[in-house]
Structures are given as C-alpha cells and as structure tokens.
Amino acid sequence: MRSAPLFDPELFRDEAVPEETQELNRLVEKVLADVPAVHERPPEETRAERESGEGPLPLEILPDGVDRTIDGPAGPLRLRQFLPEGTPRCAFLHLHGGGWVIGGAHHQDPRLKELAERCGAAVVSVDYRLAPEHPYPAAPDDCEAAARWLVENAAQEFGTSTFLIGGESAGAHLAAVTLLRMRDRHGFTGFAGANLVFGCYDLTLTPSVRAWGDRNLVLSTPIVEWFVDQFVPDPSRRRDPDVSPLFADLTGLPPALFTVGTLDPLVDDTLFMASRWLAAGNEAQLSLWPGAIHAFMAFPHRAGREAIERMLAFASERIDGVMEARS
Length: 327
Fold this sequence. Notes:
The chain has nine helices and eight strands. The protein is an alpha/beta fold and 327 residues long.
C-alpha cells in the first residue's frame, strides 16, 4: 500500500510562487542589503534598534498587554498576558523568536491580541533570558518554569485547564523543548496542541541551512551559525535532545501544526521534525508556503495572512476538540 505524501512537491517549484511573494522577497533582500546583518554587530545594538522602532520591522506595543512576574530559575520572570472577553477557553503559552539572542515577549502584541480574541485564549508570552549573556540552558529553563506555572495556576487565574503552546523560529524550538521537559521531568502531557512556526530543531544544522549560503532573506547560513554559537557555545552539546529536539524521543506529544516557507533556510528542520512527529505516533499537519521566507508572516501579504488564519483555525479546532471530549 502506498501512503499519501506529507506534502505536495509541486509547492517547491518556481512556478508555484505567487508574484506578490516574489515582489516581497525582492524588497526584503534589498532592504536588508543596506543594513548590517544581525551577526555583524553586537546584540545590544540590534536590541536597542528594535526597541526604538528603527529596525526593518515595526514594533507596535498595545495597551491591552499586561506584564506580570512569576518566580523563575534566576529570579523574577516576566510574562506578557492578553485576555479575551469573558472566561478564556484555553491558556496558550507563547514563546517568541529571535535566535535566542534578540526579541521579547512584547514584540508580537498585535498577533497575540488577535489570538486571544479570535480563539478565546488567555495568552501568556514568556520573556525568557537571552544569549549570549545567558546561554543554554537559561532560555529553556525559563520556558519550563513558565509552563509549570501555567499548568499549576491556569484554573485559578483564568478559569481553564485547556493548554496550548506555540512559538516562532527560536520560539518553536523552545516550545518543542518545553513539551519534552514537561513530559519527561514532570509527567505532564496535557497540552492539546502545538503551533510550531519555522522552527530550528537541529542545532548541528540541517542540510538546507548548510547549503543556503550568504543570501540574506532574514536568515542566512552565517546568521544561523552565529545565533547557535551565542546560544550553545559548546559544539559538543548541540546534538543533545534537550538542545536539538529533532533527536529526542517524540512519543506522547500533542497534535502539531508545522508552518514554514519553501524559501526558508530552516525548511528542512520543519520537514524533518514533522516527519518524526508523525513517525512517533503523533498527529501533525504541515502548512507549507511556496517561496515564503523566514518570518514571512511579519510582512503584509496574502500568504502571511492566510498562514495566520490557518494557525488560528488550528488553535480553535484543538480547543473545540477538548471541550467536546469533556462534554
């Protein structure tokens, strides 16, 4: 018997790429060619630029977001919270991207607010410690602490015991690591779904990263190598399943939606991880976007909007499934 393929290979053909996506890619490449790449400057400069709103991506901080702190492994740990109207239907643990080096819990306020409103979710985003000042395992430790807090307190804080988890890029990596830590260290497998968006799951670098080269479409081979060097300075640690979850035992994990563009250096990470997720007996969906680059949803175009809509639908479906099973 021949099984259905995980994805349609036609999606990788040049003719599958919409003209709008091609135009966006040309614009992004042109803009990034005129500024120093992230690996060519100190992290604090990139962070300060982003916080001032002077970087290539706009920063919109919403008054609806509420900051709070919980006890973390190294002191107070900041969480950023968005709530829907009425009693939340779920608690969604969000982990931001930025190569484990840049970014913050407040950098995706509009998307987190939309997630809260459209899915009825109490969204909690983690301001985990960043490398190189705080290399591995600081970020995973903070995310694990936030997950434990949420699982233990969501019923009292938000009136729900339904949990989802998700993140983008480094945040998708940390979401996978957090799921594994919660399963292995705390015996918790109660997350109803995982939204894993263009993640890096093999820090020894997959073939698509190694073969990409210097072309900067948000990421390049040197940029990914630099991010990994900051986060895990010791190369001998990078194949550890707690560092590279692609090598972990993936049994007993929740249904997941994997999203990536075909023009993302990390495309192999998603294709490999989604395959292993399925092979471990879990449910997995693959959302593959022709010609889309890394972080493509941050730019206003049709593919980005449609990808976001699919993520929102996935979250709602997972919440509905849990509620129906309990009724």
